[in-house]
TrEMBL record:
Protein name as it appears in the record: CDP-diacylglycerol--serine O-phosphatidyltransferase
Keyword Transmembrane helix: yes
Annotated membrane topology: Multi-pass membrane protein
Catalyzed reactions: a CDP-1,2-diacyl-sn-glycerol + L-serine = a 1,2-diacyl-sn-glycero-3-phospho-L-serine + CMP + H(+)
Major location category of this protein: membrane
Membrane-crossing residue ranges in chain numbering: 5-26, 32-54, 66-85, 91-108, 120-138, 144-164
InterPro entries: CDP-alcohol_PTase-I, CDP-diaglyc--ser_O-PTrfase, CDP-OH_P_trans, CDP-OH_PTrfase_TM_dom, CDP_ALCOHOL_P_TRANSF_CS
Subcellular location: Endomembrane system
Organism: Paenibacillus odorifer
UniProt keyword list: Lipid biosynthesis, Lipid metabolism, Membrane, Phospholipid biosynthesis, Phospholipid metabolism, Transferase, Transmembrane, Transmembrane helix
The family this protein is said to belong to: Belongs to the CDP-alcohol phosphatidyltransferase class-I family.
Pfam families the UniProt entry points to: CDP-OH_P_transf
Highest taxon in the source lineage: Bacteria
Length: 174
């Protein structure tokens, strides 16, 4: 039985959950918005893992994954942080959010053009989006300036040349 459709289904789950996060953020249901981002991260890990296990990686899957990731780990976290933590941050909050999105898109584009390797160059957008969402939402003591600083740091880490480990090769079939 062919299960080649399974990885793309997980990717679409990632996209759907990221979209639901935006919906819950707009409704000011911030805990649910965070939960959707966390579930999207699980789907993001599963899609690549299943594609490698089922030996059905494809250029289509790679591009679809990046489109889902920019919504679930770029747009959804920035909206969540802007509306929940940075609503009174004047122009600097939206500027930091736009910078985070731009860096996330650059990171994804660079990943899509790079040759397969044993690790990542720059922090993956999934990690950056999850860290931003969790820390900013779960620590009520964080001041807006610190949230903006965290967003800037994560943005720079995404476009940096810093190597980050990947478990991908561990799951490839021989």
């Amino acid at each position: 039985m062919k299960l080649n459709w399974l990885p793309s289904t997980c990717t679409l789950g990632n996209l759907g959950l990221g979209s639901l996060s935006l919906y819950f953020t707009i409704q000011e249901r911030y805990s649910l918005a965070l939960l959707m981002i966390m579930l999207a991260a699980i789907c993001d890990v599963l899609d690549g893992l299943l594609a490698r296990i089922l030996q059905c990686t494809s250029e289509f899957g790679k591009q679809l994954d990046s489109l889902a990731d920019i919504i679930s780990f770029g747009l959804a976290p920035t909206f969540l942080i802007l509306l929940y933590r940075l609503e009174d941050a004047d122009w600097i909050g939206p500027a930091a959010a736009v910078f985070f999105l731009i860096c996330g898109a650059l990171r994804l584009a660079r990943f899509n053009l790079s040759a397969p390797s044993k690790g990542f160059v720059g922090m993956p957008i999934t990690a950056a989006g999850v860290i931003l969402s969790m820390i900013s939402l779960l620590d009520e003591r964080m001041k807006p300036g610190l949230v903006i600083g965290l967003m800037a740091l994560l943005s720079v880490m995404m476009i940096s040349r810093i190597p980050f480990p990947s478990l991908k090769k561990s799951f490839n079939r021989k």
